[in-house]
């Protein structure tokens, strides 16, 4: 079942009125019939049976599909990998003592689903 909430915004371009619609794809990408428990973080879902290869899943479409898919998907994936790899190599990331642990459930922000705020300590590695 698709969500009924649609965000409309009016845009004026060359004296023409255009209407854009932003749809939330989160319910499309997290059906329980496909993932079982989509709210739980289990990265092994995307590995091959022997655990050596990352496999694409047809139900995961963060960059859309078809002729309207994102042209920068490869660049975005490579940049994200390099950024996270650099952080992991240079820092130990730990929860701040006395502060609550991160909440894994996302909440709906103004136009997107976003994580809750939390505090971490990034200790430089020697």
What is the ordering of alpha helices and beta strands? EEHHHEEEE
Total DSSP E strands: 6
Q: Which overall shape is indicated by the principal axes computed on the Cα atoms? A: globular
Q: Main beta sheet, described? A: 2 strands, antiparallel
Question: What would you call the structural class?
Answer: alpha+beta
Helix fraction, binned, reads: 10-25%
Low-pLDDT runs: 1-13
> Strand-residue fraction?
15-25%
Number of domains: 2
- Mean pLDDT equals 77
Would you mind describing this structure in some detail?
Strand 4 and strand 5 (113-114) form a beta hairpin. The chain has three helices and six strands. 21% of the residues lie in helices and 22% in strands. The chain has a two-stranded antiparallel sheet with strand order 1-2.
Question: What topology does this entry show?
Answer:
Blueprint: E1 7-13, E2 16-22, H1 26-29, H2 32-35, H3 73-90, E3 91-95, E4 107-108, E5 113-114, E6 120-124
Antiparallel strand pairs: 1-2, 3-6, 4-5
Key structural traits:
126 residues, alpha+beta, 2 domains, two-stranded antiparallel sheet, two-stranded antiparallel ribbon, 6 strands, 21% helix, 22% strand, disordered N terminus
Short structural summary:
With about 130 residues, the chain is of the alpha+beta class. About 20% of the residues lie in helices and about 20% in strands. The strands form three sheets. It has a two-stranded antiparallel sheet.
């Amino acid at each position: 079942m698709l969500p009924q909430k649609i965000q409309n915004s009016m845009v004026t371009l060359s004296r023409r009125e255009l209407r854009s619609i932003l749809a939330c794809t989160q319910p499309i990408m997290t059906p329980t019939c496909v993932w079982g428990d989509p709210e739980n973080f289990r990265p092994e879902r995307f590995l091959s049976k022997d655990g050596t290869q990352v496999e694409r899943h047809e139900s995961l479409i963060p960059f859309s599909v078809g002729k309207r898919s994102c042209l920068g998907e490869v660049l975005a994936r490579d940049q994200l990998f390099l950024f996270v790899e650099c952080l992991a190599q240079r820092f130990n990331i730990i929860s701040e003592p006395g502060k609550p642990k991160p909440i894994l459930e996302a909440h709906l922000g103004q136009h997107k689903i976003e994580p809750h705020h939390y505090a971490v300590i990034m200790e430089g590695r020697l």
